[in-house]
Design brief:
13 helices; about 55% helix
Length: about 240
């Protein structure tokens, strides 16, 4: 039996109900936040409706009592599905991908225990090996200038050197597979998109371009329609807010 069918046998009722009811999903975040865009990308890959609620980070809204009732750590995004309140973007993406596994893009890789494990490994690699360096580079080169802060070039050099080693591993992996976990696009690829998109607008872009397999992969994942929509904050963020 296909592994996805095996898994679905355990909790079929709530999944079926989630597919047919009026979803009423709410996303508290900011359209320029990498973590918020990660969640939007999954919602759009699945073709799901949602309400966006902007959290004003500059004014410290994420540290107010009302927001801390949603996420006691005072971070965005927060995803609300009825009585369920989730934070941590990668946990949210997995929740959405599983609940709506039969809808839109199949972002999971659950054909067997082995494929599920491989997907998990590459999601962990993104979170623990890629993101720490990519996020620092995004902050220094893309976010700091927005706030009028000076980029620390020493931090950039250190983190580029570390990211290069990660991308060397990716280059070898992508010589065997079209995408990181397998030959189809999954959450393991999607989770990379927010930082990559920002870094393509900085000098760090060369790290991706200098590696042919990585360059091809980046070109393919950043050209996805759902990702282009996630980056269109006027239409797919502010346009989703309740007037």
């Amino acid at each position: 039996m296909d592994w996805t069918k095996k898994v679905s046998r355990f909790m079929p009722n709530w999944k079926r109900e989630a597919e047919v009811r009026n979803l009423g999903y709410k996303v508290y975040g900011n359209p320029f936040s990498t973590s918020t865009r990660r969640v939007l990308a999954v919602l759009l890959e699945k073709g799901l409706s949602y309400e966006s609620i902007t959290v004003d980070l500059k004014s410290g809204e994420h540290k107010t009592e009302s927001f801390l009732s949603l996420n006691p750590f005072g971070q965005i995004p927060v995803f609300v599905d009825g009585n369920i309140k989730l934070h941590e973007s990668r946990a949210i993406t997995q929740y959405i991908a599983y609940v709506h596994s039969t809808r839109g893009t199949q972002l999971l890789y659950l054909q067997s225990h082995e494929t599920m494990a491989i997907l998990t490994v590459w999601m962990e690699i993104e979170a623990r090996q890629f993101d720490p360096f990519a996020s620092k580079l995004t902050w220094e080169q893309a976010i700091k200038p927005i706030y009028g802060l000076e980029t620390d070039q020493e931090v950039v050099r250190e983190n580029e050197a570390r990211l290069e080693k990660v991308l060397d591993v990716y280059e070898k992996r992508l010589g065997k597979y079209r995408f990181l976990a397998c030959n189809t696009f999954t959450l393991a690829d999607l989770h990379h998109l927010p930082n990559i998109q920002y870094l393509l607008g900085t000098p760090t872009k060369r790290l991706f371009e200098d590696r042919p397999k990585v360059r091809k992969w980046v070109g393919e994942i950043t050209s996805r329609d759902a990702w282009k929509m996630a980056c269109d904050h006027e239409k797919y963020w502010f346009g989703k807010q309740t007037k």
